[in-house]
Amino acid sequence: MSTVLIVEDEARITSFLTKGLKAAGFVPKVADTGRDAIEMALLGDIDIILLDVGLPDIDGFQVLEQLRGQGVTTPVIMLTARASVADRVAGLEGGADDYLPKPFSFDELVARIRLRLRPREAPAADPGVLEHRDLALDIRTRRMRVEGQWVDLSAREFALAEVFMRHPGQVLSREQLLANVWGLDFDPGSNVVDVYVSYLRGKLGKERLETVRGVGYRLV
Ligand code: CA
């Protein structure tokens, strides 16, 4: 099931969308400020974002700009009452995938969501290789291509690289990495995650794995 993040401050609209999307088989989540939306989108597990322009803190265009600036590639459909050509152009140039002026019909919204989700749900041409920008991770040989050169990874480095490559642009917490790479559902109080991130940085280049202070790490 696909998770839809609804970014909208009007309770009447979020309640209508939440009910409708659940009935249509989606998992809706709601953010009622721009900052909450950015936080939720960065933490991942969102398949598509419905983004209202008018929000109480920062507007939808600023939210979009920050998300794209931080490497979040989740499809975004902008929703706005301001059905002007200028808004439409700003939304698409800012990295929105689609644009829907209010009032819209719910059926049309669902059709647009399905259209934007489809390419991501299609299986990759070669599922044995995960690619992100100029990085590629070969699942079978457990090697990573960095700027055209294949480098060998240890078993743990490979497992860590795989988690990052499956969630590019998302902030992964130490807890998530411990669970996925080491199978631990608790923090053993060691700095094992940081140590392995530094090993991986040594092979991929330091700048590719960004430290998000107090939260975790992100593949940029
Ligand atoms: Ca609004």
Describe the structure.
With 220 residues, the protein is of the alpha/beta class. It folds into two domains: 3-121, Rossmann fold; 129-219, Arc Repressor Mutant, subunit A (Orthogonal Bundle), CATH 1.10.10.10. It contains eight helices and twelve strands. It has helices at residues 11-23, 34-43, 60-69, 85-93, 106-121, 155-166, 174-182, 192-204, and strands at 3-7, 27-31, 48-52, 76-80, 98-101, 129-132, 135-138, 143-146, 149-152, 171-173, 209-212, 216-219. The strands form three sheets. The protein has a five-stranded parallel beta sheet, sandwiched between helices. A hairpin with a 2-residue loop joins β8 and β9. α6 (155-166) crosses α7 (174-182) and α6 crosses α8. The protein is elongated. The two termini are 26 Å apart. Bound molecules: calcium ion (CA). Calcium ion (CA) binds next to loops.
What topology does this entry show?
Layout: E1 3-7, H1 11-23, E2 27-31, H2 34-43, E3 48-52, H3 60-69, E4 76-80, H4 85-93, E5 98-101, H5 106-121, E6 129-132, E7 135-138, E8 143-146, E9 149-152, H6 155-166, E10 171-173, H7 174-182, H8 192-204, E11 209-212, E12 216-219
Parallel strand pairs: 1-2, 1-3, 3-4, 4-5
Antiparallel strand pairs: 6-7, 7-8, 8-9, 10-12, 11-12
Helix pairs in contact: 2-3, 6-7, 6-8
The protein binds calcium ion.
